[in-house]
Specification:
- By secondary structure, the chain is an alpha+beta fold.
- The chain has two domains: 37 residues, no CATH class; 105 residues, Jelly Rolls.
- It has three helices and nine strands; from the N terminus they run E-E-H-H-E-E-E-E-H-E-E-E.
- The chain has a seven-stranded antiparallel β-sheet, covered by helices on one side. A two-stranded antiparallel ribbon has the order 1-2.
- The protein starts with a strand and ends with a strand.
- About 9% of the residues have low confidence.
């Protein structure tokens, strides 16, 4: 409240007004935080493989991964070790449209389900221990699948593909 005393103006606030002001400020703050959270894009944890991402050019792939084991107009095939290889497919504009990786499931470099999807995507293993999950990331413009096979020579296949 504004009061006048001998040509001076002073403000006096009651405890009630301070509490109301703080409550209004608090609710505006919460609304702002909620709006920012809702504006976040739904992006995957695993967005690239060894620096290669969807939309990169063929030259950028060669720069990141070096010379492929095999190459044609459709893409590249890389063998990094006995336990890891990758196939990179290109679209008509010679940009990456698919990244497909294969790992020996028992090797340390083999990605886990959480490495690919984080902790927000629910893991549903089958009784034999195998896992398959595909998640569409509309905001990113691609989908990712994780496939862990079971058995004596189990493999993990992770694929990223442009929608």
């Amino acid at each position: 409240m504004l009061t006048r005393t001998k040509n001076n103006y002073s403000f006096s606030f009651s405890p009630f007004r301070i509490v109301v002001f703080l409550l209004i400020f608090f609710f505006l703050f919460l609304a702002s935080v909620n709006a920012q959270t809702n504006g976040k894009k739904n992006l995957p944890v695993w967005q690239s493989y060894k620096g290669v991402a969807i939309g990169m050019t063929a030259d950028q792939v060669r720069e990141k991964l070096g010379a492929p084991k095999s190459e044609d107009a459709a893409g590249f095939f890389y063998i990094f070790s006995e336990t890891e290889n990758a196939q990179i497919l290109l679209d008509a504009d010679k940009k990456v449209r698919t990244i497909s990786t294969v790992f020996d499931a028992e090797h340390a470099a083999s990605p886990t389900f959480a490495d690919v999807f984080g902790k927000t995507v629910e893991l549903q293993a089958k009784p034999d221990g195998s896992i398959y999950k595909m998640v569409r990331y509309e905001d990113a413009g691609y989908w990712i699948s994780y496939n862990r096979m079971s058995g004596e020579k189990a493999m993990v296949i992770v694929m990223i593909q442009k929608m």
